[in-house]
Amino acid sequence: MQIRLRPLLMLICAGLCSAGAVRAQTETPASTELPASAAESEDNTTKTSSGRLQLQAAKSPWADLLKEHILEFASNAEAQNITPALIRRLRLDISNIMATEGYFSPQIQFDNPDQLAATGNKLIHVTVEAGPRTVIENVSLKVQGPMADAINAGDKALIKRRRSMQEDWGLAVGQPFREADWSDSKTQMLEGLRADTYAAASMIASEAKIDADQHSGILQVEVDSGPVFTLGELRVTGLQRYPSWLIDRYQPPKKGEVYSRSRLLDFQRSLQNSAYFATVGVGIDPDPAKADAVPVDVTVVERQARDLSFGLGYSTNTGYRSEIAYRDRNILDQAWDLRSALRLEQRRQLGYADIYLPPRESNFLDSFGVLVERENIAGVRSSRNALGVKRTSTRGHLEQRLGLNMVREKIASEGEAEEVNKALVASIGWTWRDVDQPFDPRKGEILQFDLAASEKALLSDQRFIRSYAKYQRWIPVRKTDSVILRAELGAVFSKDEEGIPEDYLFRTGGSTTVRGYGYQTLGIQHIGSTRGGRVMATASAEYVHWLDQTWGAATFVDVGNAADNWRALSLKQGMGVGARYKTPAGPIALDLAYGRQTKKVRLDFSIAIAF
């Protein structure tokens, strides 16, 4: 006996929770017609008995499905009047639900309610034996329309795509039939066509021929690709504050490009990640009549051009902090993005102003800015003024940076004469990011490498080359935990450290490097101060266990130090435990660390509040 399942046929589970459940429009195989129990042979208008139904079935997905969609099997279900009509309905509901999982010949048995009532037993067992599961015997996928014409004409790319459709079909030969898999497979195939080239692809027919006696199924699907869609003009709405040419700087699709959903999503993501728009929508109308040059609709909601914000914070590295920040995204009405701030900390004070230009069509982001900084850290008092320009480009996971900075630094420490160092530094750097979440990664890795160089003959006091590399990896453990590994290496190649600005030498220690030691207190030790060295190495291993969605606990081991050369480098060790608290900007860490060499315990903590 065959059962034919057509589109929209198996809308079973959605309505089974009510007495008027939607029934499957399919012939019920004879194998599901069981002999009536004693209760079913009675006239349901004359005899009823009361009891609670309990499903007797081994633990399996279909058993959970029955309990989910049939209220009488719920753990908190009330006692029912067990009538022949109720039993017939339950038989049909069970059979229909089992059919969605590929079981078309279930055996269903009810306890005799009258006999149980005579003994005072109010629990009626319903035994379900699934029987053999239907397995897919054959799959037929047919494509009609312009795609089929191109395939018949020998288009190699489309022949390959047609082969991929067959290989990617979800409910393949040999797999058990499931209504959910059947529906998902059709949706996936259709969306695959609509996502690239054929935006108006449609389903012509689909049918599942089920042979309940042989426990086999034959699937037949036929789709119409519809016409090839090529992109037309951009239609932008919502642009008021910023110039219209700004959209063209984010690599929009060009007229005549073949439609690709991923191409539009990349363009939407570029606009969304820019400084100018709060929300962005990009799409087309998949009308076959517009396929030759379908307009691309771009809808934007602009950010405010100007922002003024204030913040308070605290860090064990630099102490209490207050900050005022001003941002103007449309300087000179040219969409120049000004980012500026004045930050006052106990051990550091700084002010900066950077201007970011709109990206070029080649995807370069240029910026320039000024910085004034004063600090007193690890016994070293310094003031620094800097001018800089930078170009950043991003391709996939890789970010590249080019920079040129002019730095003038005045530095003094206890018992030493004041120094003035200046350097014109050219730099290049790369960062490769592949993480699941940008602010709170649980899986992935980041690799960073930077080079900087200064020439004594070009406005600098010392010739040097500075190299720095960092690798960090997040490894998921079980459902929520993670292991975090980090390693850093740095080296400055020069005649000596004299004349090199402190910012281009290395110091370490503190909450983000080697915990258990003061901020930047690991380096070359002088009387009452720590100066930067020409080499540096750090490493860290941390295990984070999340107790719930908000709070977690961590244990860690850190090692590291900085020195004038590799022979003098002696790694210091820190270890400890900590608490983690999740925020939208990433987890806040509170760590209690023990410095093995200092034999002291140190609390490392940072928190900031913007308002």
Strand residue percentage: over 45%
Percent range for helical residues? 10-25%
What's the total count of β strands? 29
Flag low-confidence runs: 6-46
- Tell me about the largest β-sheet: 16 strands, antiparallel, barrel
Mean pLDDT: 88
- The helix tally amounts to 7
* Dominant shape: extended
Order of adjacent strands in the largest pleated sheet: 12-13-14-15-16-17-18-19-20-21-22-25-26-27-28-29
Q: Label the structural class.
A: mainly beta
N- to C-terminal distance: 71 Å
Rg is 35 Å
Question: How does this structure look, described?
Answer:
The structure is a single chain. The chain is mostly beta strands and 611 residues long. Helix content is 13%, strand content 46%.
